[in-house]
What we know:
The structure is a homodimer.
Chain A: H1 41-61, H2 68-74, H3 79-86, H4 89-96, H5 98-110, H6 121-138, H7 140-145, H8 157-173, H9 179-189, H10 192-201, H11 206-220
Chain A binds a DNA duplex through residues 6-9, 40-43, 46, 67-69, 72, 77-81, 83-85, 88-89.
Keywords (chains A, B): DNA-binding
DNA-binding region (chains A, B): 67-86
Protein name (chains A, B): TetR/AcrR family transcriptional regulator
Amino acid sequence: MPAALPPFPKPQETVGPPELLQLGTGAAATGTEEDEPCLRADAARNRARLLEAAARLVAEHGAAGVTMEAVAAAASVGKGTVFRRFGDRTGLLMALLDHSEKNFQAALLGGPPPLGPGAPPVERLRAFGCAMLRRSIAELDLQLAAEPSAERRYTSAPRRFLRGHVALLLRQAVPDADSELLSHTLMAYLDAALVHHLTEQCGVPPTRLRAGWTDLVARVTRTEPPPA
Amino acid sequence: MPAALPPFPKPQETVGPPELLQLGTGAAATGTEEDEPCLRADAARNRARLLEAAARLVAEHGAAGVTMEAVAAAASVGKGTVFRRFGDRTGLLMALLDHSEKNFQAALLGGPPPLGPGAPPVERLRAFGCAMLRRSIAELDLQLAAEPSAERRYTSAPRRFLRGHVALLLRQAVPDADSELLSHTLMAYLDAALVHHLTEQCGVPPTRLRAGWTDLVARVTRTEPPPA
DNA sequence: ATCCCAAACGGACCGCGGTCCAGTTTTCTT
DNA sequence: AAGAAAACTGGACCGCGGTCCGTTTGGGAT
């Protein structure tokens, strides 16, 4: 057993509260905001530099070009620092996606209907899926690269939040169903890897993907599909 | 661009016919059969030794302990040989699952109903899911370890076959639906990583998983759930 | 201003997946 | 039987993710 308690306090990013949901102001672009709670001055500065460097690398060479060593070098920082701050490569990539994630969560919780509260649950589900598909398609390579290993795939905070949201809507729309299991099924349709496969490798147009979602929601909730 | 045509003819295993389905006799245990079409004598011998060694390592240290170098050493073979034969780690692990895969395919195509032909499509779908769940749970760690990277996850031959099967049944059961997209949704429910998460990390009992499948099939096909 | 230590740093280090290529073995041809 | 082409082999090699640990530094306490 190579077990020994890690010298790092490990991941600052993804732990947070064990339950879901934390919001932040959508302030500046990548890096320059003030959300990490208690972080030493130099640490905060390096964190910002790392995120900026990573974003630049993504823009230049795509997500595949984001090497931990490259990011460290581009930020003029030691490799260990990158891992200390973000835990692992996935953590770094997820941090890069954090802004859009926060915005999305805000829209779900407090934005205008049908995405936000105020619309009937089935309608909100439809809107949710279409928004997710749009977002996934827009950030495909990053989302794909940020996918955690199979064991951790379903335990990341953003994913849990989104699935919880779907489960909540399902509970309202179909109280008699196993909304936990059903929410996993719905989320799976929106999975980045699947979306990538269908759009890039099978040539399925986004409109058909969205139509498929609408139909799926209708079937799962045993409702009629919308007229349009 | 580091592009250069590989010195290997690359993967002999997973290519095969571009379309689905190839069957084999379920002869001996791991390794000693005669399926690879044209393989030099020593190559065939080494292939068998590698599979045997890999199976032993899985049995001893779990799928995580199956290191390419370890397999090569255990089979008294060079590391390059392992990659030449199986392409990559995923290929080796999938080869390890090949027997059960072949058996499963055979049961779907020619076995007794309701899994095989003869039963109404919805009933076959139900049986398919339950069988898949049972198989996934039985081989969880190996299935998990054999999962390809996100880009290739949906292009492996076994996966394509199974999904095609579901799409076929769906086409019969709900001719008006987009059975391609729906089949992806149904398959996603049976995904090894999800099953692992639900059973191992959330403590969902298999019976509930199967009930969830039955319910999902009923909703998707807009049929009544079975009485029992 | 000084001390002190938890926190942060950085780069040497490790293991593994994957590639390359010079040399060996098999099989085909005549 | 001999020779040549094709297929196969093995291990040195590379890059990257991730860890370790000796050193530095920020910032609260005195």
